[in-house]
Amino acid sequence: MTRLDDGATRLRSGLSVWQANDARLRDAPERPAVGVYEADIAIVGAGITGAFLAEKFTREGRRVVVLDRHAPATGSTAASTAMLLWELDSSLLELESRMGLDAAARIARRCRRQVAGIGALVESSGIAADFLPRPSLYLAGDKLDAADLREEHRIRQHLGFEGLYFDEGELAARGLIGSAGLLYPGSAEVDPVKLARSLIAIAVARGARVISPTVAAVYEHTAKGVTVQTRDGNVVRVQTLVLASGYEMPDFVPAARHTLCTSWAIATPPMIAAACEPWPDGALVWEASDPYLYLRTTADGRVIIGGEDEDFSDPARRDELTPQKVATLLAKAGKRCPGLGSVEPEFIWSGVFGETEDSLPMIGRVPGRANCLVAYGYGGNGITFSAMAAQLLAAELSGEPDEDAAFYALDRD
Ligand SMILES: Cc1cc2nc3c(=O)[nH]c(=O)nc-3n(C[C@H](O)[C@H](O)[C@H](O)COP(=O)(O)OP(=O)(O)OC[C@H]3O[C@@H](n4cnc5c(N)ncnc54)[C@H](O)[C@@H]3O)c2cc1C
Q: What's the CATH number where 375 sits?
């Protein structure tokens, strides 16, 4: 993987629609004075995960320092297409065969509560981040066909989730082409950069310190706590270190569970959604395919089209493939929603994307490292998992671990 001069991974290429909306991202961040900082918790990473953590920990009265080598919300978070799905990358059918129905049900219910929890937090905190509750429309593809979707629907109904199965005709009536689809409420969309910046601003208002740009380089773990040294000379002494460093993990974190790949996205000009009336309710549309295609609209009426993942993370190859990937995304979108195939994209971007085999994130203590926790929310539910990480890790620190913690632990089976 290509690394920048300071050892960072080039997480993104191109300019996402959220970055264009946020002029501050192009300003050079102000570098705070180099110094010695003491706090309860150091969070490495000021993306959406670090932001949820900082908000939650400061809400509980903990003293927090956040470190990032870049300005907040300019890593993978700026590339996210930010569909807040409660459904995992793996269907309930797959999860059931992997871990049994009870576990699959608990995970799905938790994700659903988590999306609702993000909505509640946004509302109670007065955050303006274009959060909108949305249904999701899961289309049959080359991984799950119409019969499989019927079975998935049956399991969901059995577990008490309410939603609809659409056949080809019912999809056509809603302006979409496909053999079958599942329309279920409970998901949402958001502007991930606005959300992350707002959560960090709330944490800062409660006393959190954000040191950026600075590179956390050395971690010294003792029985009492952790000292983080940064490349430019900051020293941060804390009781607990929480790594929310996205797709860049220090070598003492067991990483075998995850793989890195690349994902592409484009956004149309505004008002396309209204002009095409592409699908009802602004549903988050995604395919049961590999590689998959997904579509969402934005608050200003753009359509975001994403997917076409490849299982490499090299930025040079990523950039080389971009024209071809854009053409494929448009062609595939046009096959699902006539009218989109000929649209000229206004934004084109791509980024590193992480996956785990079981579609679950890595959240919890680092085995063998006292006082070190991680929050790595891989996959297409990354943001839902970021919010979950804040709950699970806060519970862990309170001494009463969350009852679901074992599903996401680094050393799970
Ligand atoms: C194209 C694309 C589409 C996606 N679509 C969706 C989607 O629809 N829904 C969804 O939920 N998720 C989606 N994701 C995934 C989601 O974006 C990620 O899960 C999420 O952004 C990860 O946030 P993070 O804060 O963990 O990581 P990041 O945003 O990458 O933040 C980590 C930060 O840590 C910093 N850092 C790392 N190492 C150090 C160090 N040593 N010192 C200092 N700082 C350091 C980095 O600079 C970075 O800013 C998508 C991702 C991509 C790329």
A: 3.50.50.60
With the most atoms of ligand 1 within 8 angstroms of its CB, the residue from 19, 77, 260 to mutate is 77
279/350 same-domain check: yes
Which atom from ligand 1 is nearest to the alpha carbon of 351?
53
Instruction: Report if residue 128 sits inside a domain.
Output: no
> Which protein residue has the closest C-alpha to ligand 1 atom 50?
80
Residue 138 in contact with ligand 1 by CB distance below 6 A: no
For residues 198 and 306, membership in a common domain is answered with: no
pLDDT at 275 over 60: no
DSSP letters for 51-86: HHHHHHHHHTT--EEEE-SSSTT-SGGGG---EE-S
Domain tally for the chain? 2
Residue 115 lies in a domain: no
Domain housing 363: 12-80+193-256+359-408
Exposure string (b/e) for 175-210, b if CB count within 10 Å is 16 or more? ebebebbbbbbbbbbbbbbbbbbbbbbbbbebebbb
Does 31 share its domain with 172?
no
Is the distance from the beta carbon of residue 384 to the nearest atom of ligand 1 less than 6 Å?
Answer: yes
Nearest atom, ligand 1, residue 7 CA: 41
CA distances from 50 to 20, 184, 292, 319 (A): 22, 29, 28, 28
Which of 76, 85, 259, 286 to probe ligand 1 with, by most ligand atoms within 8 A of CB?
Answer: 76
- Residues 21, 54, single domain; the answer is yes
Residue 68 Cβ < 6 Å to ligand 1:
yes
Domain shared by 183 and 271, yes or no: yes
Evaluate if residue 300 carries a pLDDT over 70: yes
- For residue 291, what is the domain's CATH number? 3.30.9.10
Lowest mean per-residue pLDDT among 19-23, 141-145, 287-291: 19-23
Helix (H) or strand (E) holding 152: helix 146-158
CA of 47 to the centre of ligand 1 (A): 6
Ramachandran angles phi, psi of 121, nearest 5°: -65, -45
Q: Is residue 204 part of a domain?
A: yes
Tell whether 289 and 168 lie within a shared domain. Answer: yes
Q: What's the mean pLDDT in 264-280?
A: 75
Ligand 1 geometric centre to CA of 137 (Å): 25
Please indicate, yes or no, if residue 97 is contained in any of the structural domains: no
- Best residue among 245, 297, 408 to mutate for probing ligand 1, ranked by most atoms within 8 Å of CB: 245
Q: Whose CA is nearest to atom 35 of ligand 1?
A: 45
Residue 38 Cα to chain centre, angstroms: 30
